[in-house]
Amino acid sequence: MRPFEYVRAETRDDAHRADGRIIAGGTNLLDLMKLQVETPERLLDVTRLDMHEIDEAENSVRIGALVTNSDLAAHPLIRKRYPVLSRALLAGASGQLRNKATTGGNLMQRTRCPYFYDTTQPCNKRAPGTGCQAIGGVNRILAILGTSDHCIATHPSDMAVGMRTLDARVEIETADGDTKLLPLDEFYRLPGDTPERETALEPGDLIVAVHLPDPPAGAQAYRKVRDRSSYAFALVSMGAVVSVENGKIASAAMAFGGLGPRPWRDHDAESVLEGETPSRALFDKAADVLLADAKGQGENDFKIPLTRRVVAAVLSDLTGVSQ
Amino acid sequence: MQITLSVNGESHALDIDPRTTLLDALRDHLDLTGSKKGCDHGQCGACTVHVNGRRINSCLALAVMHEGDEVTTIEGLGEPGNLSPLQAAFVRHDGFQCGYCTPGQIMSAKSMLEEFGNGWPSNVTDDLTAAPDFSDAEIKERMSGNLCRCSAYPGICRAIRDAAPDEGMHKTEAAE
């Protein structure tokens, strides 16, 4: 690990310094610092700040940025009203990691692309302009949607997929004291030709909370397909909320992990479902729209048919269609 | 940096580089070598300790960030001649072969039983709003952050089940 200055933020103002890297749970950042993928000169420890509460407000729940993944997953309100989020959190990492990992930190975790992790390899995200070896290389776990010629990394979070399904918004406090509320598709940037810029955060910004609106009507599910049954990243994961009224799908929300550089959501694919009678053929049509622009990179070609099957399985479960 | 670290109920003044992980502080500065370094990347669980009663990977924690916290290591659970119920059960049920992962397994198991007793669900819990069953499937899922290369998993599961009542897990609570 490279030397760094350790600064303990006692107030929010301390945390708005633009010249420091924020650390909370540290489960991903310290890992990357040991490998010298991350080499911050100054760490801002924000764990003493008052952002540990889950508050129920009218028509929303506000989750403090320092709420741990385990506390969030086990919270009675989340288990009861937002089970897709509890399930997504419980599908990620291990008991030890969930006890340390925070809500804000989970959003900010970095890709597990093997080239990003290997400092002897080129990587446009880690060392801009050096190229992407994952394209045409070892890319089994990498993205099929939202990629560019510069980067095909996936965002690894399960939690963020659950939150995207639920239309969560990230509350950001700027260095000037202003507040921004960004939906996750605005919070996360697509790689384009600047894959090193992953979020809309500006220097000095601090994530202070995540807001969940009232849950949409319908049944919720989270399905994660991975190489082993526990403690592994998703090859494909799917969060969904679907309501059926009078035999027709009244509303559907679907978000995906393992497919893109951010938790992936496609409203056009959801529109295919709405107002229709659930059937295997209908689910395939929705998958066609979702995957219209999907681009396999070789080793990860299997994700395209796998996603199709995950869509069919999850929607069948939620609508009672037998497969 | 000068810091004070509270470990197993005792306060220690340390002068450490900010890069020092909690694991290295315990092992190299306080001679508490029960916590083990396996992967040093949070994947194997051999370094598991409790911070304020919760299990964490001490290899992915900076010691300076845990000033004021209460750290418990395997040395704080029991000692030869006075083993904790889980430690005794691991011996009784052959919950290890080489023993390297054992302190992490036991620290993880102790905290896992508490999480269970508090009604926390897991990835294999069917009903998120009901008390989880104390099944082998639940134990395996909840212990998946602790690897054993000798593959003593059957003994580890038996030991955990056997020790659970003596570790205070008499019942589980449903969510409100």
| Separate helix tally of chain B | 5
- CATH architecture of the largest domain in chain B, by name, is Orthogonal Bundle
Radius of gyration from the alpha-carbon trace of chain A, in angstroms = 19 Å
Tell me, what's the shape of chain B? globular
Name of the CATH superfamily of the domain at 219-319 in chain A: CO dehydrogenase flavoprotein, C-terminal domain
Biggest β-sheet: strands ordered side by side in the sheet of chain A: 4-5-8-6-7
Write the layout of secondary structure elements.
The complex is a heterodimer of chains A (323) and B (176).
Chain A: E1 5-8, H1 12-15, E2 21-23, H2 29-34, E3 42-45, E4 54-57, E5 60-64, H3 69-74, H4 76-81, H5 83-90, H6 95-100, H7 103-107, H8 114-117, H9 159-165, E6 169-173, E7 179-183, H10 184-187, E8 206-213, E9 219-225, E10 236-245, E11 248-257, E12 264-265, H11 267-273, H12 280-290, H13 303-319
Parallel strand pairs in A: 1-3, 2-3
Antiparallel strand pairs in A: 4-5, 5-8, 6-7, 6-8, 9-10, 10-11, 11-12
Chain B: E1 2-7, E2 10-15, H1 22-29, E3 48-51, E4 54-57, E5 70-72, H2 85-92, H3 102-117, H4 136-142, H5 153-163
Parallel strand pairs in B: 1-5
Antiparallel strand pairs in B: 1-2, 3-4, 3-5
Helix pairs in contact in B: 2-5
Describe this structure in words.
The complex is a heterodimer of chains A (323) and B (176). Chain A has 323 residues and is of the alpha+beta class. Chain A has helices at residues 12-15, 29-34, 69-74, 76-81, 83-90, 95-100, 103-107, 114-117, 159-165, 184-187, 267-273, 280-290, 303-319, and strands at residues 5-8, 21-23, 42-45, 54-57, 60-64, 169-173, 179-183, 206-213, 219-225, 236-245, 248-257, 264-265. Among the domains of chain A are: 5-47, Uridine Diphospho-n-acetylenolpyruvylglucosamine Reductase, domain 2 (2-Layer Sandwich); 219-319, Enolase-like, domain 1, CATH 3.30.390. Chain A has 13 helices and twelve strands. In chain A, a hairpin with a 2-residue loop joins strand 10 (236-245) and strand 11 (248-257). Chain A starts with a strand and ends with a helix. Chain B has a five-stranded mixed sheet with strand order 2-1-5-3-4, with helices on both faces. Chain B folds into two domains: 2-76, Beta-grasp domain (Ubiquitin-like (UB roll)); 85-167, DNA polymerase, domain 1, CATH 1.10.150. The interface between A and B is large, with 35 and 41 residues.
